[in-house]
Amino acid sequence: MACDNTVNKVQTETARIKAECSQCGLCSDGCAFLAENTSPAEMAARGLTKEEAYSCSLCAKCQALCPLGLNPMGMFQERRVETMQNQELEAEEFNYFMPDCEDNVMNYYRQYYGIDYSNLESDKSSTTYFFPGCTLMTYSPALTKEIYNRLRHKQGCGGILTDCCGLPLYQMGLRARAGKFTNYLVEKITAKGIKSLIAACPNCYYKLKATFQPLGVKIFTVYETLDFPWSSRTDLPLCTIHDSCPDRMEGIFVRQTRKVLQHMGYRIVEMSNILQDSPCCGSGGQISHFRPDLADKLVRDRLTEAENTGAQILASYCMSCVLNFARLESGLKVRHVMNLLLGIDEDYTEVKKRAAEIFAS
Ligand code: SF4
Ligand code: SF4
Question: Whole-prediction pTM value?
């Protein structure tokens, strides 16, 4: 199963780092959390605290930077699994953001605002489905419905799957629950006879690819599937793009989103840290729960970097990144790439606050 593979890989990573890390410091130079510590080798040798495990945003930048091909993120993931197995943390405390729990914040948000996709037209004989991902479908029903309508009428997409990809369970270290959730998705997708999934979110795209590609299901992005008109407009605002962590190694969204935005006439100005060097937006690995100070620092640093480009718009193709950047004040309009491509403008400034208020009440 996918989760067992993940854990086995993680378990070997700690031993590798202990044995092979040269303490060159390259990963620490690129990571605010590692910079608080000595080196991955020293941490592996002395053993990690659970606080350290949950201070890593699981962004994989260290893996991209390491000249020896080591993956410090892996040892933090391993410690997360160990923490949960040893019951050093109460797993139920985190059910509010777990997809296998009905009472999670996104379900509440959708119920509270009457966001519902059950009445959308569908074609049960189709083998192609849209997988928007829970963050997009919760916080932007307008984008979700417009993407689905276009996929449905122009690409023959037969339905929409309103499930989570299960990533939060894996990231939290809840191995058994994550495996169970993946099995549920496999059964559901197999029972529907689905042969192709079109993903909007990079986290979902890579998670679905890892699970379903070996089962013969093809995974596509919305950017390669939808048609976007060419435009010769020269009056569109200058835009900079934040690259999201799950795309770091393959760069599929990196290339596709820049291509379609430029095709539509957007001028793109790049930040200093893009592609593999892009930092986490501060929402990865649930660190906004465990290390809000670090999460805020990541947001502020990235907003400053974006402002320094002179761009008016900071765009991202991951809705979690968009929401995280929009929650702090800046001189930028923070938008999802799809807001720009589909001409649907939305202000995400208050969304996170609203979600927190609903859940608190
Ligand atoms: S995954 Fe990201 S946050 Fe975690 S140690 Fe690596 S670079 Fe730092
Ligand atoms: S970049 Fe690699 S070798 Fe260098 S300190 Fe980090 S883990 Fe060790």
Answer: 0.94
Gap from CA of 77 to ligand 2 centroid (Å): 17
Query: What is the best residue among 66, 75, 277 to mutate for testing ligand 2's pocket, by most ligand atoms within 8 Å of CB?
Result: 66
Name the closest-CA residue to atom 2, ligand 1.
59
d(CA 82, CA 199): 31
SS3 of residue 299 by DSSP? helix
Cβ neighbors of 96 (< 8 A, separation 6 or more) are 103, 104, 105, 359
DSSP letter assigned to residue 67: T
Torsion of CA 253, 129, 150, 322, to 10 degrees: -40
Ligand closest in space to the Cα of 61: 1
The three state secondary structure string of 20-63 is HCCCCCHHHHCCCCHHHCCCHHHHHHHCCCHHHHCCCCCCCHHH
Residue 7's pLDDT is what?
46
Which residues in 329-346 are b (16+ Cβ under 10 Å) and which e?
Answer: ebebbbbbbbbbbbebeb
Ligand 1 center to 57 CA (angstroms): 6
Q: Which residues of the chain have pLDDT under 70?
A: 1-11, 359, 361
